Amino acid sequence: MTNLWEDMETGPDAPDVVYAVVECLKGERNKYEYDKDVPGVVLDRVLHSNVHYPSDYGFMPQTYYDDEDPFDVLVLVEDQTFPGCIIEARPVALMGMDDDGEQDDKVIAVPTEDPRYDHVQDVDDLTDQQKAEISEFFETYKNLEEGKEVETLGWEDADAAKDAIEHAMDLYEENFA
Q1: What function does this protein fulfil (predicted)?
Q2: 67 is in an annotated binding site
Q3: What is the rounded average pLDDT of the residues 37-47?
Q4: Which of 16, 27, 85, 120 could form a disulfide with 22 if both were Cys (CB 3.0 to 4.6 A apart)?
Q5: Maximum distance among all alpha carbons in the chain?
Q6: CATH number where 141 lies
Q7: How many domains are there within the chain?
């Protein structure tokens, strides 16, 4: 069985175009995680706060980030896909985040095959409302979990997102190749 983290490449033209493996779905509270030992997507928990994912959320294959997990990606979609879906996506922004003292940045990306997002190339193409909703979600989604503290650290452009992806690809190579 294919391991979506280890057996797939990061993308067809990484860091400019990446694969996003969807774990969590837009509009839901279920926190799914890919378990490479299964391999498959399993229910990790239901979010304790009454919030829902602002878009489909998952990870990029063959990446490893400073929080010692595959690198996170939020793909802006009109309609949710499904856990395990692979979306070819274009990184457009990086949202800095601190999760319990660990650097846990999020790449924001758009599907390459959705013409509704053809105009979205960089962080300035996102609306203030989109950025506010994404930040609000990540600032509050762990509020009711005991002892959890999350802080968003601002927005960076597509180049910063691509640099972070290259960093995550290098960390993967160093730790798992």
Answers
A1: Catalyzes the hydrolysis of inorganic pyrophosphate (PPi) forming two phosphate ions.
A2: yes
A3: 93
A4: 85
A5: 42
A6: 3.90.80.10
A7: 1
